[in-house]
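The freezer alarm interrupted the setup, so I double-checked each line after restarting. Inputs confirmed:
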Amino acid sequence: MSAQAPEAAGKIAGGQVEDAPESCAPENPVEQFLRMDRMPHIWCPGCGIGTTVNSFARALLEAGLDLDRVAVVSGIGCSGRVAGYLRLDSFHTTHGRAIPFATGLKLANPGLTVVVYSGDGDLFAIGGNHIIHAARRNVDLKVICINNLVYGMTGGQVAPTTPGGAVTTTTPYGCYEPAFNLPALMDAAGAVYVARWTTYHVRQLTRSMIDVFKKKGFCFIEILSPCPTLYQRKNRMGDGLDAMKYYKEKSKIRHGAPTAEVALSKEGEIIVGKFVDRERPEYLELMRAQLSAQLGERYVETEHLVCS
Amino acid sequence: MLHADPKGVLTGVHFLDGDHAACEGALAAGARFAAGYPITPSTEVVERFAARIPMVGGIFIQMEDELAASIAIAGAVWAGAKAFTVTSGPGFSLMMEHIGFAAMTETPCVFINVQRGGPSTGLPTLPAQADMMQARWGSHGDYEIIALCPNSPQECFDLTIRAFNLAEEFRVPVMLMMDECVGHMTEKVVIPPAEQIEIYPRRHTRRPPGDYQPFAAGPDLVPEMAHAGEGYRFHITGLTHDERGYPSMTVAAQDRLVKRLKAKITRAAERLACYEQQGVEDADVVVLSYGITSRVAQRAVELARARGAKVGRLRLITVWPFPTAQVRALARHVKAFVVPELNLGQIALEVERAAAGQAAVVQVPHAGGGVHDPEQILDAIMEVLK
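Predicted 3D structure, all chains:
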């Protein structure tokens, strides 16, 4: 398929949409990034994951990356299904382990752009140890975390991000565990780029995704995303549209906000923006510098560890 | 078959322990990526790899735990590398999920387990052979793996190469089931010139993108691979999947996939069977053993023969898939199998299954922490012959 979707669709001539019956509408420009033979997807009406995929596809389009060199790695859960819908080299791994799989993939072929696309439970509960170590090492991974505050795939259980007081199927009387503040955690662990958006902020989100495609090192984007079927229903917070209204009314853009001040609460203010954007040497740079310094000409620097 | 890349081959006559020899085997086999987590008595394998690999060209990374190490290698393999990890008891338990993932996604990779006494933390510095069933059955669901069992540092070198070759040929995780004794015993290890080491190449597809299905298998039931970044834009999942690699939650897809994953190994079981036998033709009793126990058993067999007993010995080198046909054939001629092992009866159960009642199976169990006294095995032999 051509990278120029409108041409591929064959419905646009000279920049003008020809008169055509509605059934022959121009192809959606993001379709080229999707495995259309896997549609319809499994996500519920009002779910925000598809919205983030749309932003991701537009970011890929605008960043002008060689799509043959982009790999997406997901863990398990609703967000873990993203990899399977993207027409890229894509890996649906085990629960919580997308990050170490992606680490192996990236280190063995540094020429790849490796994106980890997964959920808050996958990345921060079962996978919590891996994400802090990948950030510490500053492995060049682009981590996109869909935070819907709950375990969706398994039916709405409490997550390490569930706000205090929220009802889930395993906290039927309200959550009493303190929640992680994900940007603060990633900031402390050493991520070079930390941003948060909601699925209301699709253009800002797309820009952040383009930012991380261009940045070297461990980058983290949290996306607050609605789960109307489980989280909102249990907490009488309405449907997907109500979530958009909530995001619109309660979000405040504060670029550079100290991450310690951006914790979420059940119905409080949502601080969004780019919080961290700094330079630190990336894992392979550190490795090569150390080994070169110690071993001199004996060091065999490698790029792609491909076997015969 | 290809020849080994000379960069990784330390040709010569060496005095190495089994852990170091296994590392040299991995390098000779073409492993250029290893991920590990420290655990006694296996750590020397990756310590040596960490010291050697910068001069060969490749990467060692010490991960945050064994779960991470065991899936980082899968990532490296899908990028194109040959990769392995090394562990012992508790770490092996943590790796089970990714042994299943590697089996399901047909990721060629090698897991080395230098066995120590268990359960739990057990005996970190002392030997056992009590993970033999775990190697076969430890991850959930139906699957097959290949497991090899060396009894000397030389075999740690040789069988590590064989493990990598089998992993590539069958696209399956292969276990090298060492034990603390073999890992820490130092002996002569001969590393041949690179051109004398045969390497099974990656079964990379020759089909162009668009004409490639990642899990469409030919007559030998093993599909061809592509690597990330080559334009194939394939999908890999631990979910039950179809030939395209797409999740497929149906009885038919499950039946088709899981039966193929099993059959690609079981159909080759006789060809995979690798063993060493001596004096079994006219034997009344065969002592069946593997790993370090085979060296103790050899002494017991010699003592029994000195007493005039007709005793043969069979040493398993391939433990999984179990060499059922070979054991069954012997069962028709012998009175009994005597099975000493550093566990309370694991492979002995397989011997019983293979013998199918045609020969008795006498266990000589040992809970681990040391090796048998040859007299214990001798007593079992003489008891059978009474």
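Quick read of the result. DSSP finds 13 helices and 18 strands in chain B.
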